[in-house]
Design brief:
- By secondary structure, the protein is an all-alpha fold.
- The radius of gyration is 37 Å and the shape is elongated.
- It has helices at 7-16, 36-41, 53-58, 74-81, 87-90, 114-127, 135-149, 153-175, 193-218, 225-245, 268-281, 283-287, 324-349, 351-355, 371-396, 407-417, 423-426, 429-433, 443-460, 471-484, 489-493, 496-503.
- InterPro entries: Fun_TF, Zn2-C6_fun-type_DNA-bd_sf, Zn2-C6_fungal_TF, Zn2Cys6_DnaBD.
- Pfam families: Fungal_trans_2, Zn_clus.
- Keywords: DNA-binding, Nucleus, Transcription, Transcription regulation.
Length: 505
Amino acid sequence: MSNTPSPLSVSMTDVSQPRETKRRRARHHKSRQGCYTCKLRRVKCDEARPVCGACSFRGESCCYPPPNQQLISSNSARSARLGSETVEQLLQPLELHLPELSENVSRDDESINMADMALLTYYMIHVSGNMAVHPERKLSWQRVIPALAAKHEYLMHLLLALAGTHAVFEAEKAHGSPLVPNTDGNISNQIDAALSRDYHRILEHHQRGLEGFRHALAGMTASNVEYVFCGSVLIVAFAFASLRIRALNDAHMAPRSEDSLEQPYTDWLHLVRGLATVAQEHWFSLKISSMRSLLLYAYANDDWKPNPPSSPATIFPRLQHASPQLLLFSQGAAQQISLLGNFASMLNEDVGTCMEGTGSPETRISPAMQASELLSEQIKTLEKLEEMYMRILYVFQFTTSQHDCSVSRDLQIDLEETAVLSWPHAISNAFILSLQPGQELGILEGFSYVILAHFYVISLLFEDLWYMKRAFPQEIRTVHRLIGRLAYGPLASLMEWPMAFVAGR
């Protein structure tokens, strides 16, 4: 048989195996300048303006990128892949397809204040974790208060002022001298220019924060009381901390003059007392707010009354390894309350002589208040002092720790739970009036300062709180010098116990 294929077989092969042809995509121009609607639908946009054909057909809104949002050309992209572009060309803003801002949107505050950002960072790193020892209250300072401050400018000013006091004090320690302005209003020569700027920045933040706080306080309701209470807490913390930088003298936060350095600071007491007013007016709203941990204290009560500590007290077991200040307090607090009460009784017997105004240091009294009225306020204040002291002695008696921490930290947590640092709220305005600087000092007024020094002793027991250190020892020394000028032995002897705390530091 012949091997030559027949014409039929050839034709069948051609039919069964058709020739394959390549499909070619139609050429078109690529563009990324289409409208946002077509981009979202992933359809081609003809880029007709003001409304493209696709949007016009569908009856949809058509919005194009602003003219200044131009993409890098394809030639630039290819050259970038080849490594021929400079860094400046590559660092282009991301193409975020957002509509243009309306004309009424302000762009005035777009810059970042780096000094304030540094203070805020300083607060979060160095301050927030050291404002309380109890874990729940510490968490409030670390998270709740910064979150509330981020919503109101006046709260942020108050928070930055508080952070600045800590920063200035740390700088003061590095310089080895207290931050006290000299008589011409300048910062001491030992404090450098940078610290001086920080000092004035603190005062500016505090003044602006107080101004905003006053407006918020005037319009306080149940809906904004949480923010107002947060502002009160920041103001109280600043009042305590400001004593460390020796900076405040009057309502305008002006530096003290050289003459007033012999008088103890009392203006900060007015800042602190405002907190109680806010809390009392909206107690229920605050108890269910995010700030409730700063209101509820386990041992702020009268549990000590059934068995008040005797004088002198025995050494409690949990104080065996405590600091000298805590031991000194446990051994002498009850006795000191007794001595102060005895002195008040002596004054009460001699109040008729005091009112005669013979001019001797023993008998001068304040012209703003009758001697009997002042003595009555002092006795009431002594009752509050005894209450605070007994709360402290009560927790000193605890034996079993309830916290997973060191013995010293456990003791500090229990001290914080007594809420004894709220003592400025417990004293009356009439008593504070007897502490006005510049008035002629007599025995009765001097006794008010002695009582104040015994309240300051409470602050010395809080060894883990930065805003309680160093300022109150200096204030106790100032009271001691003030009482010494009266040259009245029985009154001066009452300062020996507070001065023992100062000497032991």
